[in-house]
Amino acid sequence: MPERPLPRPESDALVHDPEAGIERLLEIMARLRAPDGCPWDREQDFGTIAPYTIEEAYEVADAIEQGDMAGLKGELGDLLFQSVYHAQMAAEAGHFGFGDVVRVVSDKMVVRHPHVFGEESGDKTAEQQTRDWEAQKARERGRVGVLDGVAMGLPGLTRAVKLQNRAARVGFDWPSTDQVLDKLVEEAGELVEARDKLGPEELFAEMGDLLFVMANLARHLKIDPEAALRATNAKFTRRFERIEALLVEQGKTPAESDLVEMDALWNRAKAEEKSG
Predict the structure, then answer these.
(1) pLDDT category of residue 143 using cuts at 50, 70 and 90
(2) pLDDT value at position 142?
(3) Shortest CA distance to 261 belongs to which of 237, 241, 243?
(4) How far is CA 120 from CA 108, 127, 139, 262, in A?
(5) Regarding predicted confidence, which is higher, 3 or 35?
(6) Residues in domain NTP pyrophosphohydrolase MazG-like (predicted)?
(7) Which of 270, 262, 259, 258 is nearest to 243 (CA)?
(8) Residue 221: its H or E element
């Protein structure tokens, strides 16, 4: 790939060419980070940009859940820009460039899909391919612990499921949801005991244990707990906004209402959704 940013006339032509594709985006990024670029962009590093990367991934998921294809197009662009941003900073530090990122992921996809790009039979189920994929990842990691490589930065519920999946592969798992539900009841009891008899540290720990079992129950039921919680968050937001709207019709705000009234309005909002 050419040194970036390009000489100014060539750079300006590329930056303003809507048909230039990824080369245009790479040049825009290099210009933003150049000495005469954007002061904010020049000050950023991997640590300060990482939260934006995570946020953009969630915005992609949100657009998908809403079925917003126009929005998804924009959000995928924002997420792509995050990859370009990190690659530009890595190139400036002499670590790697965007081309290296593309080559690594392309090589990985070819190696992990021998049934498509190699000699292995393509006559397999999606479940078999998932097992083969994980086995290939394990070979790539070498002799490491069962739980190694599960990213620390994942959302808590997602990481819990991934840890549990790893442990389940070597037989450390309950055989059915019945045992998980029993454990859920046990953990709920321990949480109550911690609330009533123990201190804040114990209560904190028991809350974590209960959430971990909830993630395990979702895994056994083949439900993504993060997606389920996002859906419930959206439902709560929708219904509470309906409460606010109904109160406005009475010339009131939630602060001027009380729990009894708002609970009744919540039930009304819930009934309206079901009937609608």
Answers:
(1) low
(2) 64
(3) 243
(4) 16, 16, 17, 61
(5) 35
(6) 45-117, 179-239
(7) 262
(8) none
Distance CA 79, CA 212 (A): 29
Beta-carbon neighbour count of residue 112 at 10 Å? 18
Q: What is the pTM of this model?
A: 0.69
Domains of the chain, first to last: 8-110 (1.10.287.1080), 156-223 (1.10.287.1080), 227-275 (no CATH)
Q: What is the mean pLDDT of residues 137-143?
A: 67
How do residues 220-246 score in pLDDT, each as one tens digit?
999 999 989 988 998 999 999 999 999
User: What pLDDT, on the 0 to 100 scale, is given for residue 131?
Assistant: 74
* Residue 41 to residues 8, 54, 70, Cα–Cα distance (Å): 19, 18, 27
Q: Which amino acid is at 106?
A: S
Give, in order, the Cα–Cα distances in Å from 33 to each of 44, 55, 108, 138: 9, 21, 29, 37
- Do residues 91 and 98 lie in contact, with contact meaning Cβ atoms separated by under 8 Å? yes
b/e 36-67 (16+ beta carbons within 10 angstroms → b): eeeeebeeeeeeeeeeebeebeebbeebeeee
Q: Residue 7: enclosing H or E segment and its boundaries?
A: none
| Rounded CA separation 79/55 (Å) | 9
Q: Tell me how far apart the alpha carbons of residues 238 and 85 are, in angstroms, rounded to a whole number.
A: 35
Long-range contacts of 243-252 (CB under 8 A, 24+ apart): 243/269
How does DSSP assign 160-184, residue by residue? HHHHHHHHHHTT-S-SSHHHHHHHH
Tracing tokens 């971990």 back to the chain, one arrives at 212
Lowest mean pLDDT among 129-133, 164-168, 226-230, 244-248: 129-133
